[in-house]
Amino acid sequence: MSIRLHEIGKHFGRTQALEPIDLDITEGELVGLLGPSGSGKTTLLRIIAGLETADNVAGARILFGERDVTHLHVRDRRIGFVFQHYALFRHMTVFDNVAFGLTVMPRKSRPSSGEIRSRVHRLLEMVKLEHMAHRYPAQLSGGQQQRVSLARALALRPDVLLLDEPFGALDAKVRQELRRWLRHLHDELNFTSLFVTHDQEEALELSDRVVVMSNGRIEQIDTPDELYRHPANRFVFEFLGDVNHLEGTVRNGVLTCGDARLAVDLADGPEELLLRPHELELAPSATQHAHLPVCVTAISPVGAEVRVELEADWLGEPWLATVSHADYERLHLTRGTRLYAAPRRWHRFPDERSKQAASTLEAVS
Amino acid sequence: MSSRSFAIGLGSTPKRVLPGFGLSLGISLTFVSLMLLLPMTGLFGQLAGLSLAEYWAIITNERVVASYVVTIGAAAVAAIVNAAFGLLLAWVLVRYTFPGKRLLDALMDLPFALPTAVAGITLATLYSSNGWMGQLLEPLGLQVAYTWVGIALAMSFTSIPFVVRTVQPVLEDMPNEMDEAALTLGASDFTGFRRVILPHLWPALVTGTGLAFVRSLGEFGAIIFIAGNMPYETEITALMIFVRLQEYDYAGASAIASVVLFVSLALLLAINIWQGRFIKRLHGGHG
């Protein structure tokens, strides 16, 4: 079932938590709401669920398919909600937790107890916990508890599934596993789902589309690929990964900052360039176009790439560069090695407020 | 070599990292002995002068048995009333914010702070036939002072903090998400309360109510002024003990006191055991 929001805003007292927002989610989509804490993403999710009410303005609408749920109570919206801290009923067994939604249905529409039993067992099978049916939540690990909570949310076959930082309380490895598992489950059952996260990696890996939010505003809605390649503004660019800053003054096509120089095709004046760590190349000597002397201060050779921290007296904050293991060995990098950085490409977001298109330029080499 | 023999000398006790175990346990036991066990031993010492038949005769004396009925009946009513209103008070104090919340919270401890005799005299003047409340209630045919209703009222006054103060922290620990989860699953407000919130608060509520009940069994000062103390009707067990003491019948007083003591201890023990099993289940035991 599709979700359509129109003019949904929220004030808490006099502070505006959410600027009026329009958002369309098509049926069967898995959408991530991504933003730093305080960006309004959880508030938005809770408004869609009906756990929070939006500001009562004339145009405010929430539609599930053709159904207008704007003024519907949470219990009548037919949503499944997964909480960050699972919110399982601790005095009930896993079975009773999952069966809860079915057993509180009005007597007329409630399935028979046999039917409930078989449905709960099917759900527990789906989340691979059928052997845990008679345990209590406190006897399960965090990942298992979150799976129970997911089975509980799906028991009523909701129109939409809403997840509030579903993996936030779990450790990194379990988080990875559950993420992949949720993706499979979603592809299999094809429900429409919306999840909140502050983890950009999680949002990019899991979602069909990502909604990036900050300060109660939607900054950009796009596929993960588009988002990463063509960030709409500086906030999105900086939020989606590590960023190196280069500030200086351009004169006659050369940006200067202390004893660092970089050939750029820009008009004269102060400039700030942004560079991704993997867009930096390290070499023992300067090139014709880039003279950026740096010194290695830390090396972390874990993972597919080697992460190198660079410092220089012309740099305010240290830079981060990622190099391949082959390059790492070729360059004989150790702490204290002095060499030259050269950007393969750089980005700039000239003036935030003018909404001018951002430019990403291949560096001249 | 010497350290090894020293360890053996101590038995198999592993060496503790945190200091002061011996000292603190010793002080605790001494304190418990002096403050709790010694008076109780004194009580049983008094009983030693009685034969079993005499003991039985005292505790099954008709007037004393009538006082059991009055005390237990009134305490039960007070405990049930306190369970309901204590739960409501705790709920209001935890779940809502309103001006004067701090004051209301502090007010909860008033029955602990007030000398019970003061409370008793105040209640008696309020509810006697020419007191403020008594004047209003009497025309309605509701006599509070000098009836068991007055006894229950005084008991519930002195024991309400037990319920509020045991339920409050448990309610504070219970995340809002739990009842939100019940709502997203389609539960009505009442079903959510009955099947999610109440079971969660149940152990604390039962403990609080049990404590309130036991406290009411032994209450004296707050009750005797409002009770009227009519034999067979509004005499409480604590008064029966007091009367024996005034007559210098220490053995008789101790006999009746021992009954109150046994009932209270048995009740507290039962609550503790039951609650332990429930809590084990919530925290991951195999209960």
From TrEMBL, chain A:
SMART domains referenced in this protein's UniProt entry, alphabetically: AAA
Keywords in alphabetical order: ATP-binding, Cell membrane, Membrane, Nucleotide-binding, Sulfate transport, Translocase, Transport
GO MF, one annotated term: ATP binding
The keyword Nucleotide-binding appears for this protein: yes
InterPro entries cross-referenced by the UniProt entry: AAA+_ATPase, ABC_SmlMolc_Importer, ABC_transporter-like_ATP-bd, ABC_transporter-like_CS, Mo/tungstate-bd_C_term_dom, P-loop_NTPase, Sulph_transpt1, TOBE-like
ABC transporter domain boundaries: 3-240
Keyword Membrane part of the UniProt annotation: yes
Pfam families in the record: ABC_tran (PF00005), TOBE_3 (PF12857)
Protein name, per record: Sulfate ABC transporter ATP-binding protein
Organism: Billgrantia ethanolica
Gene expressing this chain: cysA
From TrEMBL, chain B:
Membrane topology: Multi-pass membrane protein
Primary location group: membrane
Any matching Pfam family: BPD_transp_1
Family matches, as SUPFAM superfamilies: MetI-like
InterPro entries, sorted: CysT_permease (IPR011865), MetI-like (IPR000515), MetI-like_sf (IPR035906), Sulph_transpt2 (IPR005667)
Keywords assigned by UniProt, alphabetized: Membrane, Sulfate transport, Transmembrane, Transmembrane helix, Transport
Subcellular location: Cell membrane
Transmembrane domains' residue ranges: 21-45, 65-94, 106-125, 145-164, 250-274
Subunit structure: The complex is composed of two ATP-binding proteins (CysA), two transmembrane proteins (CysT and CysW) and a solute-binding protein (CysP).
Protein name: Sulfate transport system permease protein CysT
Provenance organism: Billgrantia ethanolica
